[in-house]
Amino acid sequence: MPAGASSAGPEDFDTVVVGSGFGASVVAFRLAEAGQRVCVLERGKAYPPGSFPRDPRRMAANLWDPNAGLHGLFDAWAFTRIESVVSSGLGGGSLIYGNVLIRKDERWFVDEALPDGGYERWPIDRALLDPHYDAVEKILGAAPYPFHTAPYDKTSKTLAMREAAESLGLDWMLPELAVSFAPGPGEEPAPGQPIRDPFPNIHGQLRYTCRLCGECDVGCNDGAKNSLDHTYLSGAKAHQAEIRTLSEVRALEPIDGPGGGPSGYRVTYVTHRPDGPPTRRRDLPSTTIRARRVVLGAGTFGTTYLLLRNRAAFPRMSPALGTRFSGNGDLLSAIVGASRQQGGKSVPRDLDPSMGPVITSAIRIADEADGTGATGRGFYVEDGGNPVFLDWLAETVGVLGTTKRAFAFMARRSLAHVMGRPRTDINEDLSRLIGGVSAVSLPTLVMGRDIPDGVMRLRNGDLEVDWTPRHSAAYYDRAEETIRAIAGTLGGRLLNSPLWFFRRAITAHPLGGCPMATDERHGVIGADGEVFNYPGLFVVDGAAMPGPVGPNPSLTIAAFADHVADGILS
After folding, report:
1. What's the 3-state SS for 109-154?
2. Beta strands 247-256 and 262-271: pairing type?
3. Spatial separation of the C-alpha atoms in residues 417 and 264, rounded to whole Å
4. pLDDT, tens only, 488-503
5. In the beta sheet, which residues pair with residue 296?
């Protein structure tokens, strides 16, 4: 097909699902299971176990910028006061998230005024979502980290977080994780065992239980992470859903029906060619398909950007499009230099962040909405982790400490030679030289109830986010104070992201842009996920959230999508 050409004779589907993340995959599975003809369009590639890059050359190319010939997993966005990293691949954010499944707190479905004169109002509640939480957790294989059995009970970072919480009187927990620790339900956990999948795996490959390698957020090459490609998308394909990768939707428009409203929608997408030369999107082959129903699940940025770019085709779209942006209160930092007292001396405290899944435990900080007397907005602090290969990078980044240890090593060796004992304590000296920075450091992740007052809009055709941490300053100050207290309890200190010095936030959980509401003046979609004034058009991803979820939002997005699917099928 020549560049820019469109296929003749558009195909017809019952439902076209745009994206393959937590909202999109759930709806695709539910509708395919019900016998509908479903087409899933995902802009990124499929990533079977063993295909996630690890070496520097391939990691450098593992970014998403098709105009530059990059068709990788990570898509980094930079705006005026906030930056974000999202995923591009079959399974969406589930490929790189921390596996944590925490339900939105019952009292955090708020209805409250905001400092900018707006409001945060949730038209759904915990009671409505609870059965959908149950359904999603079952398919995602939710299970807490098996911390009380060997070898998992030796996980240093989990022990440290529990100790810190107990010392400070904080609420510590082992959240449900979408990770397979055991080969099947009811079986004993054991690393590296073949997993028995409920559906034929979409990649046609065996998966193995978690090996505790800390590589969850760079893609699990064992398949232990119960990501959406291994669960909902495998189920959707088993029920005859058509799944098209490297298919990026660029245009969306309603098809006029006899009564003046839409009788369906036309969806136009381009097909990327990773093995060809870098090509502008407008020069790629395009295909148009039709459907009675379109479900948007391309992520907060992807869905909002698509609707903003095609707004002329939707003149009755709510003016709330682009509003209620939130970073879900994300604050990325680290505890460094951890130590403990031993024999009256301070010695390094082993935190070993590369041992275990990337997140194992969480500390919940109460919210004033809880009604328990707490003040301020609530949040969760979670232990972070990293792959072993990043420990070596951490040692290199800590070059000053490494240099000091190197001089000390050489001084001790020289003294030993002068004294005629050249082999004295060399193994101890080598141990001191090699390990120092990474073992006593621990990434920490905060997420919670920041203020959703950001606005997303187009500027010269590009997506722009007008957001500032100013109104959420008290929230961030409280989060920093809490991590500093945890670090102090562990004999370490808080190290913030260098960007936070300039009050530039980093979020892995962008939310809002197409917020749900009770009417079109205040939101883009209703509580049923359907776009006001455009029947048959739905939003089911993070863009639908009218404010921060608080804990990791993936489970709530998936549960909301399951609720939307119920409405579609009723």
Report:
1. CCEEECCCCCEEECCCCHHHHHHHHHHHHHHCCCEECCCCCCCHHH
2. antiparallel
3. 84
4. 999 999 999 888 888 8
5. 18, 539
Q: Cα–Cα distances in Å, from 492 out to 69, 338, 370, 403, 546?
A: 43, 4, 31, 21, 37
Tell me which H or E stretch contains 558.
helix 554-569
**By the 8 A CB rule, do 384 and 445 touch?**
yes
DSSP one-letter code for 72 = -
Q: Please state the φ and ψ torsions of residue 172, each to the nearest 5 degrees.
A: -100, 145
Q: Is residue 77 within 8 Å of 464, Cβ to Cβ?
A: no
Q: Is the peptide bond before 2 cis (omega within 30 degrees of 0)?
A: no
Token pair of 497 as six digits: 């992201």
User: Which of 563, 487, 553 minimizes the C-alpha distance to 528?
Assistant: 563
Question: For 99-140, what is each residue's pLDDT tens digit?
Answer: 999 999 999 999 999 887 778 999 999 999 999 999 999 999
Query: Rounded to two decimals, what is the model's pTM?
Result: 0.91
List C-alpha distances in Å: 74 to 217, 389, 397. Answer: 10, 18, 22
Q: Does residue 90 contact residue 47 with C-beta atoms inside 8 Å?
A: yes
Residue 407's contacts (CB-CB under 8 Å, 6 or more residues apart) are none
Q: Which residue has the tokens 């098209």?
A: 244
Closest CA to 536 of 261, 239, 236, 243: 261
Quote the strand ranges of 511-570, DSSP E.
537-539
Stated as kind and residue range, the H or E segment containing 56 is: helix 56-60
> Which of 269, 272, 265 shows the shortest CA–CA distance to 250?
269
Per DSSP, the three-state class of 267 is strand
Cβ atoms of 321 and 307 closer than 8 Å: yes
CA end-to-end span of the chain, whole Å? 41
Picking from 310, 316, 341, 313, the residue whose alpha carbon sits closest to that of residue 490 is 341
Q: How many residues does the chain have?
A: 570
**Distance between CA 155 and CA 468 in Å, rounded?**
37
**Residue 135, both tokens:** 């359904």
Of 10, 47, 82, 5, the residue nearest 506 (C-alpha): 82
Q: Decide: residue 370, CB within 10 A, 0-12 exposed, 13-18 middle, 19+ buried.
A: middle
Q: For the segment 158-169, what is each residue's pLDDT rounded down to a tens digit?
A: 999 999 999 999
The whole-angstrom separation of Cα 113 and Cα 121 is 8
* Backbone φ and ψ of 508, nearest 5°: -100, 0
